[in-house]
Design brief:
0% strand; mainly alpha
Length: 319
């Protein structure tokens, strides 16, 4: 087993153990069972729809960076990458796989993986922007100023890097050298075309607002009335923390975020309900990721085991 995955599983187990010591897991399970089946289905379908939107946005960035691919091929690559993120390699390895798949048999795998990094960076900037701007506009009293500053710093930092990286590369490295040509090609994935950036930003905003709205809906399904403004300014923090590659699928980290914001800062939920919310979100992630496994099984020309070994071998050097 990969040592990074082993460490991630150990961290997940530790976080789950700590949470379990202060939460009645039986009561959490009962809270989950009390959610209507229709509400669970809506959360799962809403999460799945969000991933489709995200895949389309990724394809637009990849095309702007020089990768030619169809919508169906990008969807296939995206969901297989999700499957490997969830069940196989972890976020880094799964991202390498989807980058390899979108580049095709004859394309640059490094360029394909770079498209995934660009997609992740852009999404992070938009998510941080949603949380930071919401906090600045509505001035909530439940967020410390340093948390707001952190979101603004992340959004501005990623945005500034997006703009300056291509300029710095073109000035520092000679385009006539092999390294210079490669770096120019890679930073070209950070599109500065205003039309492309506007379109992918709108799609990214739609994706994040959908995920935020699903959290508001989950709270309502659990019988809690949380103001949408509160959800709008806190879920970006939770999603950023949950996306960090420190635990398996964000398990433990995400639940800790729910407990902190929804039970300790303001007692909208019980700790047991907060854990039930985390379980429902994990269910949506798992089912959506399983779609990628089904796609992989139906793709007779796809050697997933070979692709997995290639990703493990190249994940540390692909960029």
């Amino acid at each position: 087993m990969n040592w990074k995955l082993t460490l991630k599983l150990l961290i997940t187990a530790t976080l789950v153990t700590v949470i379990a010591q202060s939460v009645d897991l039986k009561a959490s399970f009962q809270s989950l069972l009390q959610i209507p089946a229709g509400s669970i289905l809506l959360v799962v379908m809403g999460y799945l729809l969000g991933q489709v939107i995200s895949a389309i946005k990724w394809r637009m960035l990849a095309q702007a960076g020089g990768i030619t691919t169809s919508t169906m091929e990008s969807l296939k690559a995206y969901f297989i990458g999700m499957f490997m993120n969830c069940f196989g390699l972890g976020m880094v390895g799964g991202d390498v796989i989807r980058g390899m798949l979108i580049s095709g048999k004859d394309g640059s795998r490094t360029l394909g993986v770079t498209s995934v990094v660009a997609d992740r960076a852009h999404g992070l900037a938009v998510l941080a922007g949603v949380g930071g701007l919401s906090a600045l506009i509505f001035r909530p009293d439940f967020l410390d100023s340093y948390l707001i500053a952190m979101l603004i710093f992340i959004g501005l930092g990623v945005g500034t890097g997006w703009i300056l990286a291509p300029l710095l590369v073109s000035r520092i490295f000679s385009v006539e050298s092999k390294l210079g040509k490669k770096l120019v090609q890679l930073t070209g994935m950070l599109s500065r075309d205003s039309r492309v950036l506007f379109r992918v930003s709108v799609l990214s905003l739609l994706f994040h607002l959908l995920q935020i709205s699903l959290h508001w809906f989950m709270a309502d399904a659990l019988g809690a009335s949380i103001p949408f403004l509160y959800i709008l300014t806190t879920v970006p923090f939770i999603n950023i923390l949950g996306s960090l590659p420190v635990s398996w699928n964000g398990v433990g980290v995400r639940e800790a975020g729910y407990i902190f914001f929804f039970t300790q800062q303001h007692p909208f939920l019980s700790q047991e309900q907060a854990v039930a919310m985390g379980a429902l979100w994990l269910l949506a992630i798992t089912i959506s990721s399983a779609v990628g496994g089904s796609i992989a099984l139906l793709s007779k020309d796809l050697n997933l085991s070979l692709l997995r070994s290639d990703a493990l071998r190249n994940s540390s050097t692909a960029l």
